[in-house]
Amino acid sequence: MLLKQIEYFIAVVDCRSFTEAAELCYISQSAISQQLKALENELGVQLIVREKRSFSLTLAGEYFYRHGKQIVEELEKIKKETIRRGENGELSLTIGYLKNYGAIELQQTLAEFSKIYPEVSLSVVVGTHEELYHYLINGEVDLLISDQRRAFHDNYYNYELILADCFVEISNQNPLSERKYLSVDDLKRQTCILITSKEQQSTEKEFYQNTFEFSNQFLYASSIEEGRLMVVSQRGFMPIEAIGTLPYVAKGIKRIPLFNKDKQIQRKYCAFWSKERTNYYIEEFADLLRKMLSQNI
After folding, report:
1. Do domains 94-154+270-295 and 163-266 have the same CATH topology?
2. In sequence order, which ranges of 16-166 are alpha helices (DSSP H)?
3. Is there a contact between 286 and 143 (Cβ–Cβ < 8 Å)?
4. Given this structure, which CATH class describes domain 163-266?
5. Interatomic CA distance for residues 130 and 156, integer angstroms
6. CA distances from 186 to 77, 125, 210, 222 (A)
7. What is the pTM of this model?
């Protein structure tokens, strides 16, 4: 059985026409018919029931089409990855993630991935949503883990990871810390602490004002650790999204669910990567991270 015969068969089924499939494969119609007949003879079963101007698939044909297509797609991935390895020499994968990412599953995924694929050199980059977005489009990261703030783009894979529950971390000296949950209205007169770079302060402020309707009072921290020190010092509250298992809060801090009316607010988190630069390892990392996150839901 030749790979070309499988490809011809798939083309005929996809095009629903021997003539169009022949044009697509750059061979004559009689040649593609002969190749399909030879394929059926080798298998010893009929794949296509030919009629006057159309055809239908047998049960064997439907099975062969479905699994044959998977084989061809997988071989194409192998071909691309083989070429990439030959051109690049060293295998590397750069992961971008948000400054306020505090869950443990990413660390677990990095450790497990390194164990399974020791030949791949891993590196990580942190940033705000906007910084990571520019890293991705400029090719500075291979894959980024971030919240969805834009409409999905056709040039990128948008691999949904988790719906993250939203919380706020607040000083236990604040009277609001006694609540079982807090609403946006409860926090309107409180100062909001955001994890961001100096360059992205206005962008992050605008997002939280428009999305969560927080007040105009904002303070900024460069890391989640700095933000928590500000919370303990009673300088404000810090919004946190549970992109997996969050670590226990430090003494002096209370983590409280953030609600809108009678439901906890959630945000969609995804793994994003370029379709042009996709490879087996990027896809494996994204899949492994999603499995890690789903185990702890």
Report:
1. yes
2. 18-25, 29-43, 59-88, 105-116, 129-137
3. yes
4. alpha beta
5. 16
6. 52, 35, 16, 26
7. 0.64
Per-residue pLDDT for 272 more than 90? Answer: yes
Categorize the per-residue pLDDT at 50 as very low, low, confident or very high, splitting at 50, 70 and 90.
confident
Share of the chain above pLDDT 90, in %: 53
CATH topology of domain 94-154+270-295: D-Maltodextrin-Binding Protein; domain 2 (3.40.190)
pLDDT tens per residue, range 156-170: 999 999 999 999 999
Q: 3-88 is classed in which CATH architecture?
A: Orthogonal Bundle (1.10)
* Planar angle of CA 159, 165, 166, nearest 5 degrees: 120
- DSSP secondary structure code for residue 149 in this structure: -
Tell me the residue type at 107.
Answer: Q
CA distance 288 to 106: 10
Tell me the domain boundaries of the chain: 3-88, 94-154+270-295, 163-266
